[in-house]
């Protein structure tokens, strides 16, 4: 699935203003992932953001416009969600979701690399 290049540019522009972070981009989850300090932070899909956040905030975030739980293998994945365009349309809402992901990034664990056999 191709990712939304305009949305990716918005994320890239926002993150480029943060000199304290090491930002890398990787194709992942059928979209473009923005790795912050070697950890998956936010992903851009066709028109959704995929956010990684503190799982303790799930109930509160589920009330926000555009929030869509991330379901994998029939179960909700704690600490991850999708955000539909209505949820990030304004600059304030867009900044909310990106800051949410950046705030959690410091606490997030780096994924273990799989060893090829």
Structure write-up:
This protein has one domain (5-107): Aspartate Aminotransferase, domain 1 (Alpha-Beta Complex), CATH 3.90.1150. 26% of the residues lie in helices and 32% in strands. It has 3 helices and 6 strands, in the order αββββαββα. It has a 6-stranded antiparallel β-sheet, with helices on one face. The longest helix is centred in the C-terminal third of the chain and has 15 residues, at 91-105. The mean pLDDT is 92.
Order of helices and strands: HEEEEHEEH
- CATH topology description: Aspartate Aminotransferase, domain 1
- CATH hierarchy, class: Alpha Beta
The CATH architecture term is Alpha-Beta Complex
Q: How many structural domains are formed by the residues?
A: 1
Which percent band covers the strand fraction? Answer: 25-35%
Q: What do the pLDDT scores average to?
A: 92
Identify low-pLDDT runs. Answer: none
By DSSP, the count of extended strands is: 6
Radius of gyration from the alpha-carbon trace, in angstroms: 14 Å
Fraction of residues in H or I helices: 25-40%
User: What does the largest sheet look like?
Assistant: 6 strands, antiparallel
Strand line-up in the sheet with most strands: 1-2-3-4-6-5
Shape designation: globular
Q: How far apart, in Å, are the first and last alpha carbons?
A: 29 Å
In brief:
The chain is an alpha+beta fold and 117 residues long.
Structure keywords:
RNA methyltransferase, globular, six-stranded antiparallel β-sheet, transferase, alpha+beta, 3 helices, 32% strand, Aspartate Aminotransferase, domain 1, 117 residues
